[in-house]
Design goal:
nine-stranded mixed β-sheet; about 20% strand; about 400 residues; four-stranded antiparallel β-sheet; 13 helices; alpha/beta
Length: about 400
């Protein structure tokens, strides 16, 4: 069984990744993994809520096979998740990686060369650095069979570089010398555009310097909204995904394992302007909150077009992924096709290969044709009451 490196992220949207058809962001490392691996086009999360599903995917019975073949480690910046998983004894080790200690502005301004900071001062950067160190340590002890990194930085605070990562190698170890003062949304450059370009009058951002943390937005857009504001926020989100792309490439390049398998997946989605909303769990429940990134290296190339839930993660951890996600199953899929989603925002949510049906808390019902209506633009509940009755009862 190959060593398995896993990265799960709250708030990771497929819409910002090239392998999922994004034309306004650049993710070469992730696209390369997808090109030679397995990618699910229609992976639907079973749960919509603040509490992550990670413990469901790594229960003790699921982890037995991995634990028998080597050490298992969970690294996370989610303290509640760390406590919940640690209580199950599913992993050999669970490690909470908290915020980096911050120095005062005067202390940092007084540093001659500023050797603190760099990408390791970001939340995800610290987690990846810990994962690389854990691999090295495992060479001198019992070999690791699974290193799982989970972060919620995309839903909590964006601290990766805001500028386009045009020269990824320079990201490495330069210090952050921005002021400690709180930054407001209005103070962020108004000259960023959707393609990550910088105006000729603006000093280019040093791609190696993490930006001051920015709280993710929770915004509603309508006909009166400034379209440039949405574009600016999309670029800020895109820059965080480019940072993820860079860190994944750095992690795999620095890996001490011989030909490890790598998996990337969402534990929660993120609205990027669909249905007029932008943010984590922003607006009424829609496909953008449920559509998950799902990709695995070294198992392809295979593009999985069928609707699946997040149960594939359990199969991957167990070591039975190849038995369920193979050419035979691709040609003749079996399994559950009516997925019931648990959500605090809706009374009943059902996803099928052809429909997304929702009953909101106020009794309002909606119906969207799938996969054609990708972003839930056209509610056809009035036209197909028979489908609503069949799915929602």
């Amino acid at each position: 069984m190959k060593p398995l490196l896993m990265l799960s992220l709250d708030g990771l949207s497929p819409a910002a990744i090239g392998a999922y058809g994004c034309t306004w962001n650049h993710t070469p490392a992730l696209d390369a993994i997808a090109a030679g691996g397995w990618v699910a086009d229609r992976c639907c999360l079973r749960r919509d809520g603040d509490e992550t599903s990670v413990p469901d995917w790594c229960s003790q019975d699921i982890m037995n096979v991995r634990n028998a073949s080597g050490r298992t480690l969970l690294l996370t910046d989610d303290v509640d998740l760390a406590r919940r998983v640690a209580d199950t004894d599913a992993f050999s080790e669970v490690r909470f990686v908290g915020e980096i200690d911050t120095e005062s502005k005067d202390e940092r301004d007084g540093e001659a060369d500023g050797e603190a900071g760099g990408f390791e001062s970001t939340r995800l950067g610290r987690l990846i650095a810990e994962a690389i160190l854990a691999e090295t340590a495992s060479l001198d002890a019992r070999a690791a069979s699974l290193i799982w990194v989970h972060s919620r930085f995309l839903r909590d605070r964006w601290d990766g570089p805001l500028a386009t990562l045009s020269d990824a190698p320079e990201i490495a170890m330069d210090p952050a010398d921005e002021a400690d003062d709180e930054i407001s949304h209005d103070e962020i450059s108004q000259d960023e555009n959707l393609n990550g370009e910088i105006s000729k009058d603006e000093k280019p951002h040093d791609g190696g310097r993490p930006s001051l943390p920015i709280p993710p937005p929770m915004l509603h857009f309508d006909e009166q909204s400034d379209p440039d504001e949405l574009s600016r926020w999309l670029e800020r989100y895109a820059s965080q995904i480019r940072f993820v792309d860079y860190l994944v490439e750095a992690w795999l390049a620095a890996s001490s394992f011989d030909d490890p398998q790598f998996a990337l997946f969402s534990t929660a989605g993120f609205a990027l302007g669909q249905n007029g909303w932008l943010g984590y769990r922003a607006g009424p429940l829609r496909s953008s909150h449920l559509h998950a990134v799902a990709m695995v290296s070294d198992h392809g190339p295979m593009r999985w077009p069928h609707l699946i839930d997040d149960g594939w993660i359990k199969q991957l951890v167990r070591g039975g992924f190849a038995e369920t996600m193979n050419a035979k199953a691709w040609a003749d899929p079996t399994g559950e096709t009516h997925l019931r989603i648990t959500s605090a925002r809706a009374d009943l949510v059902v996803m099928t290969p052809s429909w997304l049906a929702l009953r909101q808390r106020d009794g309002t019902e909606s119906l969207f044709l799938k996969p054609d209506d990708r972003f839930d633009k056209n509610d056809v509940a009035r036209l197909r009451p028979d489908i609503l009755e069949e799915l929602l009862g």
